[in-house]
Description:
By secondary structure, this protein is an alpha+beta fold. About 35% of the residues lie in helices and about 20% in strands.
Amino acid sequence: MLHVRAIDTCYGASQALFGVSLEVGDGEVVTLLGRNGMGKSTTIKSIIGLTPPRTGAIFFDGRAIEQLESHRIARMGVGLVPEGRQIFPNLTVVENLVATAANHRRVDTPFTLKEIFELFPRLAERRRHYGNELSGGEQQMLAIGRALMINPRLLLLDEATEGLAPLIRREIWRAWASSRTRGWRSW
Ligand SMILES: Nc1ncnc2c1ncn2[C@@H]1O[C@H](COP(=O)(O)OP(=O)(O)OP(=O)(O)O)[C@@H](O)[C@H]1O
Ligand SMILES: [Mg+2]
């Protein structure tokens, strides 16, 4: 589904990625490990088009995407849970979930608000709260819910549970695993 081939990515004159290659197959989970500053986030940002690679190629479902703008890549079915969550602070939980929701791939049973609230009951309790009124864990759940609402084929998670309490981590991985099973049934 995803082929990253020998990409070099730079920030101005400073090169962060040197010939990174990886593959993700249909239904597969791939984990990228590395010390701080090794280029995990840059790899993710290169795939989604935020920091396009200078050389190398990226194929998603066989189509070259390394020169596409990030909103086009997202429309093809790549969801992002970014480092630092990037929740809209002045939108409510519900507004955060629906602001970018879409079904561009026309899947038969797209995610609904109800399903996201079933996955993350804490979000349901806080549905009218603004993004900047949420705890870190709640923001993380919201970032995952928001990414699911674009009905992605591929979900990129950058440090999905960083800095969160063990119980919250468990809740997030449980919800993520159950959304993944659902994905397999309906996509
Ligand atoms: N906006 C930027 N401008 C310049 N250099 C950057 C920028 N963002 C990251 N870098 C540099 O690129 C390299 C890779 O950073 P990146 O954020 O991809 O690492 P990471 O593996 O995600 O680290 P962490 O585990 O700390 O999140 C680092 O040397 C970093 O200093
Ligand atoms: Mg990072």
